[in-house]
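queue> pop job 88
queue> type: inverse folding (structure -> sequence)
queue> payload:
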């Protein structure tokens, strides 16, 4: 954001020449930062409720670090997903304030504490321990977005009693993210037990005919349980973003 344009806009608001609602609309369209190889959208939080997230996968370490530096300088919290451990180590050495979570391959820089808000709790449920990396990507992302998050892991359909013994936690949640690989049956089971939104996340965990998560994806898309929606394979962040919008939705 250019300082002069912001000063002019704020001065107009103070004089009464520009209503606050109009100023907010103008702020939504203000410029991005051109880094040559990346166009940083510093106003995404104003439009979407959460700042731009850095996808670490497919970028060079130098690109990740440069983008992270600029986003940190802008003053907001920074979230990086799909970040390889070796790049995470370089990031921690180069940009102060980041923490790296190895299991979900996520890096977070919290400039300010995020007070949990929203209608209630987002419960992240995983079918198996092998699904935890994707589940943790969802859980950490949802926490950084300002939600109360609880976890319920390794409660898949092969031992359904583990889930049923904790059904009160399912009923207490405002939104549920259910992560499963193999045949992807768990979201259907959960969807049949609750009256809350269920966001299903297929993972690429499984043997050959799981086709890298495609079998789980198709199983979830074909669920007969009402109120279950599905995100892409291994997309824990996408599930968190959707769950956060539901949980933070104004009445």
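queue> result:
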């Amino acid at each position: 954001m250019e300082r002069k344009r912001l000063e002019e806009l704020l001065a107009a608001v103070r004089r009464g020449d520009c209503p606050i609602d109009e100023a907010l609309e103008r702020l939504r369209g203000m410029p991005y930062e051109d880094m040559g190889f990346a166009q940083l959208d510093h106003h995404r939080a104003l439009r979407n409720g959460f700042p731009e997230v850095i996808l670490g996968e497919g970028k060079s370490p130098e690109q990740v670090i440069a983008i992270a530096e600029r986003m940190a300088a802008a003053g907001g919290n920074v979230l990086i997903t799909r970040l390889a451990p070796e790049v995470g180590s370089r990031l921690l050495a180069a940009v102060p304030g980041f923490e790296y979570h190895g299991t979900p391959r996520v890096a977070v820089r919290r400039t300010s504490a995020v007070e949990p808000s929203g209608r209630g709790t987002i419960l992240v449920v995983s079918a198996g321990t092998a699904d935890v990396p994707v589940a943790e990507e969802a859980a950490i992302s949802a926490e950084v977005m300002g939600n109360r998050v609880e976890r319920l892991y390794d409660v898949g359909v092969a031992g359904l009693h583990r889930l049923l013994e904790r059904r009160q936690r399912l009923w207490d949640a405002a939104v549920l993210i259910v992560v499963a690989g193999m045949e992807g049956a768990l979201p259907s089971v959960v969807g049949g037990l609750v009256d809350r939104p269920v966001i299903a996340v297929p993972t690429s965990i499984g043997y050959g005919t799981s086709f890298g998560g495609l079998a789980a994806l198709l199983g979830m898309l074909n669920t007969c349980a009402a109120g279950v929606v599905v995100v892409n394979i291994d997309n824990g962040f996408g599930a968190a973003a959707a769950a956060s919008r539901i949980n933070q939705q104004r009445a």
